[in-house]
Amino acid sequence: MSLTAADVKKIAHLARLNMSEADIALYTPQLSNILAFVEHMNQADTSHIDPIANPLDLSQRLRKDVVTEKNERDQFQAIAPEVQVGLYLVPKVIEDE
Amino acid sequence: MEWETVIGLEVHTQLLTKSKLFSGASTAFGADPNTQACAIDLGFPGVLPVLNGEVVRMAIKLGLGINAQIEARSIFARKNYFYPDLPKGYQISQYELPVVSRGFLDILLEDGTSKRINITRAHLEEDAGKSLHEDFQDQSGIDLNRAGTPLLEIVSEPDMRSAKEAIAYLKTLHSLVVYLGICDGNMQEGSFRCDANVSVRRRGETKFGTRTELKNINSFRFIERAINYEVERQIALIENGEKVLQETRLYDPNKNETRSMRSKEEANDYRYFPDPDLLPLVISQDLIESVRHELPELPQQKRQRFMDQYGLSAYDAGVLVASRELANFFETTVKASGNQPKLAANWVMGELSAALNKSNLEITDSPVNAEQLGKLVLRIHDNTISGKIAKTIFEALWNKEGDVDDIIEKRGLKQVTDTSAIEVLIDKIIAANPQQVADYRSGKDKLFGFFVGQAMKESGGKMNPQQLNDILKKKLSG
Amino acid sequence: MEYKTLTELSKELTTKKISSVELTQFFLERIKSFDKKLNSFITVTEDHALQMAKQADEQRAKGEAGRLTGIPFAQKDIFCTRGIKTTCGSKILDNFISPYDATVVKRFNDAGAVLLGKTNMDEFAMGSSNENSYYGPVKNPWDLERVPGGSSGGSAAAVAAYLTPGATGTDTGGSIRQPAALCGISGIKPTYGRVSRYGMIAFASSLDQGGPMARTAEDLALLLQTMSGFDEHDSTSVDKPVPDYLKTLNDPIKGLRIGLPKEFFNQGLDSEISKIIHDAVREYEKLGATVKEISLPNTELSIPAYYVIAPAECSSNLARFDGVRYGYRCDNPKDLEDLYKRSRSEGFGNEVKRRIMIGTYALSAGYYDAYYLKAQKIRGLIRDDFMKAFNEVDVILGPTSPTPAFKLGEKMNDPVSMYLSDIYTIAVNLAGLPAMSIPAGFTKGLPIGMHLIGNLFDEERLLKVAHNYQKVTDWHTKIPEGF
Predict the structure, then answer these.
(1) What is the pLDDT of residues B360-387, one digit of tens each?
(2) Shortest alpha-carbon distance between residue A45 and chain C (Å)
(3) CATH fold label, A5-42
(4) Which helix (H) or strand (E) segment is B11 a member of?
C-alpha cells in the first residue's frame, strides 16, 4: 500500500498531529515503506486461525461496587496547564452537543 | 394518510451504581467540579480500568426484563475521538459484541391494543464529562465528574410508527428500568436520555427513507414535539422535491424546531478496536440465575396480576403499574380496604391522582397515605359513610386533620343506618308536607326525589341512600 | 564494595558491613562521576534517596529489614513515581510530576529499596537504540560511540557501568532483552500478566510487560520476586501465586531439553554471534542438557504483525496526551484543534509520531481487517508455533540480537532496518511468553546476549537455567573499561 500526501494529511488530522509540507514529504515514503513491509503478513494463510487480542486466555475480573477514591482535585490540578474554579480550561468548545 | 413515520430509539440509561464503570470514584450527582474525577477518570498516564461487577448484574437485569439474549461473552472496545470532555481520547464501549442482544418490549397503545417493539441490543459504555461555556471568555471549562459513569445504551429496532408509539415505548422502558432499580429515571439530571432516528416514507413503500438522528432530548414532551416537527420537516422537503440529508439534528425546545449539527458530521472515523486493557466479559448461566432470583415483579407481569387478582381492566391495571410506587400504593390501599380493589382503584386513580396533579406532587409525597385511603374505602364499603361524605373526609385527610375514624367521629359524619331513627325522621317530613304527600299518592312519582332531598337535608347527608329509599317508599305508599 | 552484585550487597547490608546510606552515597557518587558520559539517568533523586536510605538503616536497626531494604535501585522513567518527575522520555511529559505511584514502584518502596533516580529511555518505549529520547541518546558503556539498545537503554547502561546494582525495564518487543544483550547484563521479561502494568505508562497494552535488569540471574530472581504478583488495579494481571525463585535457583539442570530454532540461526545472524551462542550450548550440554533443533516457522511474520499491533494500540494509548489536564501545552492555542495539534506535534518526537500515524491508519475505516485483525491472527500462528515447540523442549535458546551494539545514528533514517534488529525478541511478546537475555561472550570488545525463552509462567525454570550457566562462566562479571 503506497500512501499519497493526501492520505498522510488525513491520517495526521485523525491523530491530531500537525504536518508541514516538509513533514509530509518525509513521512509519506517512510510510512509507505513501513506499510509495504507490514504487508508481508499477507503471505500467511490465517483462514483457520482465531485472532488473539490478549496473550492469556482469561476473562475480565469484576470489581466490587464501592467508592474507594477520595477528592484529590487540588493535587491533580497542581500539574494542569490551566484551571479555574476547579475546571480545566480549553479554548472555547464550539457548542454542538 | 399518505405518509408513514418510522422511528427507532437509542436510550442511554445511567446505571445506579455507587462507583464508576472502571474506577472507584463516586457517581453522586451535583458535586463540585472535578472532585469526583480520580486518576483513572482523568486518564492519567499509566492508569488502568477494572470493571464494576454491579454494572454487569444490572445489564443482566435489563436483559431479563426485555426478554433478551444475555451474551456469554462480550467485548469492550475503544471508540477513538478527540474531545475535551473525553479524557483518554477514547470512550470504552461495547461495539461488535454487546452484553445484551435481541429483546423486546410490549407497549400498550391508546386504543387498548398492544404492540411489540424489538430491541436490537443493549451495551455498556462510559459517560463523558461536561463542557461549560458560560463563565469564561473565549474558553470552556471542563468538569470530568461525570466521566466514567456507567451507561447502558438500549437500541430499538425502527419499529415505531408515530411519536405517540415512541413515547409509549419510552415510558414503558423508563418504568422498566426504574422497577429494576438499575436507573433512577431522572430525565432532568440526564439519567435517562434519548436519541431518536426518524424517517418518513410513502405508505406501502418497503424501503426505509433517509433518517435523521435527533440528539439528547430530555423530556417525553420534547421528544414527542421534536419527532412531530422532524416528520413534518421531512415530508415538506420530499413534497418539494428535495432530499432528506442523513445527519444529526438538535431539537431546540424554545423555538420548537430541529437544526443541523453540521460539524459533527465531519469524517467520523472512530477506529474501534478491542480494548487491550480489558479482557472478554464472560457471564455464566449461574450468574444469570442468581440475578433472576433478585428480580422484582416487572410492570407487565404486575399488570397481568392486577387484572387476574383484582379483576381490573387492562387500562386501569396499566395505569396503576406505571410506577412501582403507585402500584405499591394501590396494593396497600386494597389491603387496608378489606379487599375492595375496584373501589380502591377508583379512589387512587380518581380523587387521589387529581389532587396530586393539582398540587404537582408525586405519589411518594402524597399527604394521604395508602393505609388512610384504604380505611376510607373500607368505611364506604361497610356503609359507615356515603361516597359523598367520603369526599369531605378525603379533603380532611389531605389537610392532615387526623385519622379516618376520628374525622368521622369528630364531625359526626357517620351514616344513619338505624331503621327506627330513619322512620322517625320520615314521619316528621310526611307530617310537615301534606300537600306533596297527597300529590305523590295521586300519581306524581317525580315528587319522590323531593322527599329524598328533604331527608338528606335534615340528616346532613348522613343517611344511607338505599335504606332511605326503601323506608320512604314504604311510608309514602302506606 | 566495587562491582558487587545486588545479592552480595544485600548480604553486606544484612551483616552490617555497610549501611544503606554509605551504599547510596557510593552509587550517587558514581552517577555523578560517570553519567555525563552515558546520559543513562533523566532524573537523579539524590535527597530523596539519602532520606530513604536513612529510613532503611533505621528499619534495619529495628530488625525489620528484608532482602531489598536499603538496596539502591533505579526505575525506568516509564514507571510513575509519586512526587517525582516521570517523563517517559518525552517532551510532552517533561513537566509531569506524577500524583501517584505505579504498583511496581510501590512494591519496591514497600520492600525498602532506595530510589536513586529515573533512567533514560526511548520516548514512550518506542525504539531499539535509545536515540529516540527527548533527553538525548544514551551511550553504550562498552563503546561510547555505540547505542545501548532500547528502549530500556538507560537502565541497561546504568547497570552495565555499575551506576546502580539493578533497575527496572519494560519489554514490548525486546526492550529489556535487547539492551541487556547490547550492554552485557542480565534481564528478564516475565510472562504477560505476571507483573502489574498499573502506573507503567502504556505503549502497547497487550504486549507491554515490566521486568528487572541486573548483573546476574540470581539478582533478577530477587528483584522479580518483589515485582511480581497479582494486582487488583490491572485487569490483565494474573492471580496466580509467585513461586520462591531463589529456592530452586541452584537446582541442577540435568535432563533439561533445549530447543534451537533454526530460524534464529539463518543468514541474518552475525557469524561471530552464532559461534558464541553455540559455545554456550556446549556449556549446557556439559551441564547435562540435551539439545535439539526445532522450528518456529512464522518468526519472520512477527515483525510485520508487531508493527501493526503496537502502533495501533499506541495510537489510542497516546491520545490522552492532549495538553488539557497535564503535560505539555503549546503556547497561545488559537482554538481547540490548534491546542491538540500543536501540543501533540511539539510534544512528541518523530518515531512516536510515525507510529501513531501507522496505528491510526491501520485502525481506520476499511483497513481494520487487513491490518489489525490480520496481525492478531498472525499472533495466533506464532503462539501455536511456540506451543508446539514446548511440547518437545523445556526452553528455547538462541541469540538475543542479530548484531552487537551498532553505531549511534547508523539506523536512525531507516525505520524498517531498525525494526529488524528485534527479529528474535518480538515473537515472544506476541505470544506473551517469559524470556531473558544473559551475557554469553564478546565480539570485538562488545558483549553478546544469549536469549532463553520459556513456556508461560515458567520464569522459575528460566532463572535456574541462566543461573546454572552463570555459575560456570564469568561473562556476567565483566565491567566495561573506564567505569
Answers:
(1) 998 989 999 999 999 999 999 988 888 8
(2) 9
(3) Histone, subunit A (1.10.20)
(4) strand B3-14
